[in-house]
Amino acid sequence: MLLIHSLALALLAPWAPPTPDAAPRPASDPAVVEQPTAPAVDVEPSPPVTAPTVVEVPRARPVVPLSQAVPPPPPVVEAVPGGATNGTGDTDSSSTGGEQFEEPPAHPSPPQPKLADAPTTALPAEPSPPETEPATEPATEPATEVLVFEPPAAKPVASEDRPWFAAKVFIGLVALLVLAYLGGHPAILRLERRVGVSRVVAAGFPFLALGLLAQRNGILTDEVLGHLRPLLHLALGWIGLVIGTRIELGKLNAVPRGTVSIVGISTGVPLVLIFAGCGAVMIGARAIAGDTLFDAVVVRDALVLGAAGAIAADTETLRYGARRASAEARRTLVQLATLDELAALVGLAFLNAYFRPTGVAVTWQLPNTAWLFVTFGLALILGIVVYSILRLPATRTESITLLLGSVAFVSGIASTLHLSPLVVCFVVGLLLANFPGHYKARLVDNLARLEMPIYLVLLIVAGAMWRPNLLGWLAMLVLLTARYIGRWAAGQIVWRNIHGDLPDDARRSLVFAPMGTLPIAVAVNVALLYPDGELPTILTAIIGGAILCELALALLWRRDEPVTVTAPNPEVPR
Amino acid sequence: MRILILLALGGLMAVAHSFEVAGDTIGSGTALSVGFLILAAYLTGWVAKLLGMPKLTGYLLAGLLSGNTLLALLPEASSGDLKIFTGVAVSLIALTAGTELEIKTMRPLMRTVAWLTGLAGIGTALILAIAAWLIRDQLPFMAGLTPAGTIAMAAVLGVVMSANSPAVVVALRTEMNADGPLCRTVLGAVVMGDLLVILLFAGVGAAAAPFLGSESDQGALVHLVWHIGGSLVVGSGVAGLLYLFMRFVGQSTALFVVALSFVVAEVGARIGLDPLLVALSAGILVRNASPYGNALHEAIEGSSLPVYLVFFAAAGASIHLDVLMVVGIPALLFVVVRAISFLTTAWFAATIAGAEPVVRRLVGFGLLPQAGLALALGLLMVKTFPAVGQAAGTLVLGVVAINEIVMPIVYRIALLRSGEVGRAAHNPSSAFAIAAPDSSSQNPVNAPWEESESGLLLAELPRVDEPKPAAPSTAPASQ
Question: What does DSSP assign to residue B228?
């Protein structure tokens, strides 16, 4: 497309001044990457590329459904001299939606996407701009075709299938409507309170199932999911911001002595155990399949499972477990769970910094540690900008619009730099919660208004991305086992050596704390960042684990003797 | 402060741009573009308002400045995906237009609307076609055509360039809080006019095909029946869903409407339906056949700001100034002819229909803005007549670009002179009304920001997320 555009503008030169995007960057610029348009561009070939760092990057990004996906091939990109090490040990697949960089031939022909060689992708890349038809017009005519934008139409449905397709969509919408009705029905709400299951998981599981069904029925196809990608980034950013705004540093002074140790140990021990257990499962699966046993991808995926699986979430289930404890103890419990989420997000930031896509196509070649500074530095700058925006006088509609725009901007810029929107928005939220000003009540209110719908959208998409597999179920069992052993062992270490005020009930609740929905968000984020990993396994283990954990705990708490105080304490912050 | 924020946003976009891989982005260029456009358009709209222009022009300018023609701040890869948001916006705008068309209220205006649609719509299409035929020697793409082909091409151009813009009309009405006979007549006329243009394009296109090197499509009639009939049927289904939602759920209506608009835009395009017709018919049905017209209208109005921001900024970003350099003079000529034609024929139509003086004087100005439909038809023309369509499409793009930038300002002046500005009942800002788990709306800390531009304290108004079913009402929202 770019070449056609350039060619068209060159042909139009007598008619129109050159536009900025028509001017090529100098080939000496190490950052330059020539990008030919997809297949069908039968135009004058590009001049031979001689600079060693200039690589042809195919524009067309194939959508590879998981059913067709195969494990990633061995790396073909040479290490970048003087650049960062390739944290994944793999190709820079994420940067091109799952394609590989190869040294171009002297006269490069338009690259053809190799579906069979493409690494696993759970979510297709954002749809590329529409491909242009081969230039068949005589060169003497002004090539005006590129001047009219063509919307990226999704594949049209065949005429005979249209009524059935429309009916399926209609049924899906009716199902959504029924779920919305049931979700807000007083009887269902009473049942949720009685059972003590987290609202998000209880009301959210049907949405997850709906996403799964929609994917199986060809409604939420990989192509549609590709279109929903921006929405996912927005949802992740929103969730990160919500978590960040919950942490007011001033209130952390009131946490019990030894909190850092408590959080560190009670998160660290299960993380290590899950990492080891799930890593062993994945290596075992590779051994059975006859693949390479050990590489950076396994380490990364096991770390993801460890970080996501070790989280204790502040949900209704957690509080229900400690319902006999005092309000003070429950407040401490909530703070510990919140800090647990913080630890997980910081872990994700490190993971993101040390497992970066590398290769010559990545324009910013920085040491891995520098990416930590970029992550937090960028978040600081964005935090200041968003702070200035949110302080502008605005009506309610305008304030929600500005918040929406800010979250989209921050998560978009984070994802463009291949950083986690979850992490960057979390830091921005942390800053917003602690900067001075009267905007916070409005911010929290606006965030809360959209929090549940955004979670539900995330769950629908996660359901559509989810391809349950046997390895994933096995990993889920290992994850849950390792999690509870780890949290129990950590509890033994913590409460023997650190003087804490938490009563037994609260301690037990902390050990058996549910995972919540943050791990699902982490898994979706990882799917966006690293489409070359064992995503079906990761998603199955985390989604299955989160649901099973919540349901099992609800049943376990129900077996306990009843208590007189069951209503949620309004003093406990949510 | 706002200017500083705009500069900071531009700088950050430049930073993100530097990470791109030869114009492509690794992450979500679309999320970045949408976020940037929302913020930049909002801030530029404020600047435009300071300068006495419609905010909408500010939104367009934000897109124009950040588009590829000027500063090239938007990731190139996102330009295609922004069309998804514009699809949602078109559905939402059509739904708004539908809920505005209450038959009971519109009945006194029907005669005027019918005359406007017939005389101004068809008359202007005819006059533009004649103009195209008269200057055929100045249009290179008509040079090689047979005499019959020249007439056919002129007819197609006339139809395409006569399209109006319900989006601009609805947006300006919302922005200026305007209501009255002029607003309603213009809205009815542009909606009916666009329906007429769609039908005319199908008919004229089919008739012109043999003369313009395209094969006559035998299935055109079937396609047309599916396109229009199917859209109306599906629109009825969508209206049913909206009714059920508001009847049985009654909460988070704004979000449900946005989600439904997304489905209508995405699925409608895939199965050959017109999202505009689907949403329009749904809106009309909900307004006229259910007691939830007001509730739906309020829900849409509450969620419309971000949609308008992205829609108009994206439209601005798609304006190619380089196209204007190429086709500037013929495009300007067509703009002038179109404006004179609409103003004259609309005056005649309103006079014949016995409309109020304010309508007679000013209704023509409401027919001048152009946006999405003309662009879509231009694109369709390029596809339908590949032999001549591309160059003709460039001309259409030029005409739309000028009308898009200039005409909202003209219509705004007309609205100001009509005295209808500020007459609409204020909407209780129902943006994204969700049942907040921990609502702090009662918190006095909120007070400073609750003050709206009109000085009305929104905190005093009822929240639509209060746990009560939407009250059935029969009064139109705009009264």
Answer: I
pLDDT digits (tens, 9 = 90+) for B348-359: 988 988 888 888
Question: Nearest residue on chain A to B320, judged by CA atoms?
Answer: A147
* B448-466 tens-digit pLDDT: 333 333 332 222 233 333 3
Q: Which residue has the tokens 């009506």?
A: A395
| Residues in Cβ contact with A222 at an 8 Å cutoff, skipping those fewer than 6 apart | A63, A64, A65, A123, A124
Contacts of A414 in chain B (CB under 8 A): 27
Nearest to B302 among A233, A397, A402 (CB): A397
Per the structure block, which two tokens stand in for A313?
């979430």
Structure tokens belonging to residue A69: 């996906």
CA-closest candidate to residue B123, choices B323, B348, B331 = B348
Identity of residue B261: S
Q: What is the pLDDT of residue B138?
A: 79
Decide which of B292 and B327 is more confident.
B292
Sequence-distant (6+) residues with CB within 8 A of B220 are B202, B205, B206
B384 to chain A, any CB pair closer than 8 A? The answer is no
pLDDT grade for A474, boundaries at 50, 70 and 90: very high
- Is B102 within 8 Å of B293 (Cβ atoms)? yes
- Residue A380: predicted pLDDT: 93
Cβ under 8 Å to B: A residues 189-218: none
Would you state the pLDDT for residue A13?
32
Query: DSSP H helical segments within B271-320, as ranges?
Result: 275-289, 293-317
From chain A residues 266-325, the ones with a CB under 8 A of any chain B CB are: none
User: b/e string for A445-472 if b means 16 or more Cβ within 10 A?
Assistant: bbbbbbbbbbbbbbbbbbbbbbbbbebb
Name the phi and psi angles at A391, rounded to 5.
-85, -10
pLDDT band at A6 (very low <50, low <70, confident <90, very high): very low
The size of chain B, in residues, is 479
Q: What residues of chain B, 294 to 353, have a C-beta less than 8 Å from chain A? A: 302, 305-306, 309, 318, 320, 322-323, 325-326
Q: How close B418 gets to chain A, by Cα (Å)?
A: 27
**A interface mutation test: which of B12, B20, B28 has the most A CBs within 10 A?**
B28
Average pLDDT over residues B442-453: 33
Nearest-by-Cβ selection for B31 from A15, A176, A230 = A230
- Check if the beta carbon of residue A517 is closer than 8 Å to that of residue A546: yes
- Kindly list the structural domains of chain A, giving each domain's residue range(s) and its CATH number in brackets, ordered by start: 167-559 (1.20.1530.10)
Tokens of A267: 């998160």
Give the Cα separation of A501 and A504 in Å (integer). 10
> Domain B88-418 falls in which CATH fold?
Na+/H+ antiporter like fold (1.20.1530)
Burial A422-436 (b: 16+ CB within 10 A, else e): bbbbbbbbbbbbeee
Residues of B (79-98) whose Cβ lies below 8 Å from A:
79-81, 83-84, 87
pLDDT at B67: 81
Give me the pLDDT at residue A367, please.
Answer: 79
**Domain-by-domain residue ranges, chain B?**
2-19+28-77, 88-418
Q: Does A569 touch chain B (CB under 8 A)?
A: no
From B357's Cα to the closest Cα of chain A, the distance in A is 36
Q: Which helix (H) or strand (E) holds B263?
A: helix B253-270
- Helices then strands, each counted (H, E), chain B: 19, 0
Nearest-angstrom CA–CA distance, B403 and B409: 10
CB contact under 8 A, A159 and B382: no
* Backbone φ and ψ of B152, nearest 5°: -60, -45
The pLDDT of residue B96 is above 60: yes
List the one residue out of B343, B338, B20, B382 whose CA is nearest residue B212: B382
User: Pick the residue with more confidence: B214 or B251?
Assistant: B251
